[in-house]
Fold these 3 entries.
Entry 1:
Amino acid sequence: MRGLTLIVHGGAGNLRPEMEAPARAGVERALAKGWAVLEAGRPAIDACEEAVIELENDPVFDAGIGAHLNRDGYAQLDAIVMDGATLQSGAVGAVERIRNPIRLARRILEKGEHSFLVGAGAEQFAVESGIPLCDPAELITADALQRWSARAAESGRHGTVGSVALDLAGNLCAGTSTGGTFFKHPGRIGDSPIIGCGCYADNEAAGVSCTGHGESIMKIVMAKTASDLVAAGHEAQAAADAAVKLLSSRTQGAGGLIVVDYAGRFGASFSTPHMTWAAKTTFGTVWSRR
């Protein structure tokens, strides 16, 4: 029997002990926010969006407010959302004046003539479609600025965020949002907003959101790889494990992913010391792991 499923992640990385509780609490809040949407009978895309917005607004994570700053001292944000029923996606890259890039990604999916907009063009589309711009300073926390000033990435922080949902109609949706790597070159875009790399959703297979070293994840097209493994007969957990194993064997990078298959089964796997994630299904069970 298929029911509702929602899984969220707060990024793969190496958490300092004092960051574990805030990261877990943030992920569980995002899970609760998205689950309330699904329980109300709303579509998977609504649940994904609300869960990711909750994480973008939490400075614990490298997405939205508190994201890593680039070499020039700005937060340049990327996000994507994909609808498994239609295979339509909307993505945004390198924006500096969008408080919740996942919201803009959805607007591109639903209203845009293109699938991926970046930089000033993406911000222009936001204004044209009724999404207000923010002051870039609103995205920068004192902690992020201190790390940038010291030119020292804090290894104990969390990273890219994402969610995958299956709704009552049997539709899958996946979303991913990130601030990218610390002190990155301006204009750098990693795997997160690229369809098939950082995110993928197909009602005939699975929804996937990835996190980790973007340049490595792109090499194996990790989200599409995991979805294809489900289509080939793997259950969600087996597909997640196989994708991470391929990432480790074929690249020098580390990362992780969350997966929900067409039947509502979910999986999570990672090769980093930590990946905070939580999942819930109709059948009343909640899982949560570092």
Entry 2:
Amino acid sequence: MAVILFLVAASIIALSPGPGIFYVAARTISGGRSEGLASSFGTAIGGLVHVAAGAIGVSALVMASAEAFTALKIVGAFYLIWLGIKTIRESRTGFPAGDAVVGSARAFRDGIAVEAFNPKTATFFLAFLPQFVDPTGTVWLQFLVLGLISVTLNTAVDVAVVLGASRARTFALGRPALLRRLRSGAGLVIASLGLGLLFGRRPV
């Protein structure tokens, strides 16, 4: 029963629009489907970093330290803001230079960094997963497995969002002015996510 409740809850959370969905959609609008997919898998790896850290107790220590939480938040926020500004600038000068492989590799690295430096992700896992952990069992292993399932569900939804955003981008390809506006808007979304993280309050 606990497993079923977890799957239902995790699925609902994965389907709920959030920063991760908006981020991969914006990256897709900006750089295309390959970059969107690379971003999705990158954020998945970043999420697994938090899962592993939570399983061994590192995330709990970070959450308990106001200084560590603030430092992580600032790094993640400014990274997102920088990516947003970069995307806006590229939208005004045409498509980014370089081939799809280079762009996808960069998007993958960005996805890892964005998620790994997001303390709100650590907060979520530490608040959500322990509710379904049996304290009489191997706690760290249960946390790891539940985290892996949660990240997989989130990534599946992100991939679906990427495919949808890719269709919108394809529609706009024949309309350069519209595509520029979409890419500029994508940059604003990414930067706004950074501002939201920067001014977000530390959980009590």
Entry 3:
Amino acid sequence: MKKSILIWGFMKSGRASFNLLYNKKDKFFIFDENKDLQVQLLNEFCFHLNVFVLKELNKIVLDGIDQIIISPSISIFDERISYAKKKGIEVLSELELGFSHTKNKFVAVTGTNGKTTTVSLIYEMLKNAGKRAELVGNVGIPLCEKVKTEKKHTIYACEVSSFQLEAVKTFKPKIACLLNISPDHLDRHKSMKNYVATKKKIFKNMENNDFVILNEKLKNVKTKCKTYVFGTKKAKFGCFLDKNNIIFSKNGKEEKICDCSDVVFLRGFHNLENVMCAVCVAKILGLKNRNIKNVLNTFSAQNHRIEKVFSRNGIDFFDDSKGTNVDATICAMKTLDNGKGTMLILGGADKGDEFDEIFLNLTSNIQKILVVGETKEKILLAGKRGNCLDKLLAFTHLKDAVEFACGTLKSGEQLLLSPACSSFDEFKDYADRGEKFLEYIKGCYENFSL
């Protein structure tokens, strides 16, 4: 029976969904809000008789659709999605679509922070052990892209965002990891309760013989799976720190995996938590300690995550542009609490988050906070409530803040960009913001001949 399928959002995940599903029997409708992309797609598909590029999406169009595949950027709270569901139209995320086309195993990682680091560690450990593995999901590689050409006995190391979890139905990982939960994306999820419920959908279809790995702070999360925890406290099942040792425990039988010093290039306690989660996965999957240590000795953090990007005249510059929520910024401050006088750049697009926790957790080395972006006024008010107004300076753009810092910082001090906000008020994405940050720094030194 012929179907009418709508691919809504046509960047990486939308295109991968289309490529996986495309056949000459069904009708395909493509819609993306980007007008320039619409023109490109009209040219690209002008000779495809069963592919229709839409300039707008309304209820009349939806009445003729059987199935909608949405990209992560499309919210299930969109009124058109609500209308489609009421009409009985199936709405799936790209993640759900890819999962429905494979029988291979999944290790899925979600949480507010640390997802990319953790899932990448797991992937590298699997590869080091000679396993057939693919790194997919929110890390930037659509699952559908890999499923289309997959081989049997592949393990998918899958970073899963709350946006992807909104429209899953049957998604069922063999191992699911929940790293942490703190306020984020509340503009989309409407409330913290909704956000937490969406994160927990990762466990929805898991069974008794599946595995859940939780931060010890989240032990109140209940599932029917075998549960491992990670943190600072001893665990019967899980991974914990004992002085300078990383210990794995299975049914109370403890085994030293490595020294903390074997984690060579990852800064901060939050990264040790990511490592312990990855160790739990590796041991559940039967990997050897040497495979784990090989990766920990060489693995470095992703770009734009507390990354030292420049040093000049004894001044260090750190790019944490991927720090897009309050908890990530608190982690960054604690990681760089090294006694050096620090300027912190905060602010960006408003996701509905509040910023009081930053000022409650301000480290003693933060001398000035340079505030930019849409959230500028909210941050200034939070700073006032936190009795930190004397530390705050407001700027119109990131470039202005960087220029002030470069002209003010002295040898032995440092600048940290950790915005606690997304980047879309001024930049394409967090990577673009991080790259511009470095560009502005270098421009200052060229212009001022420092």
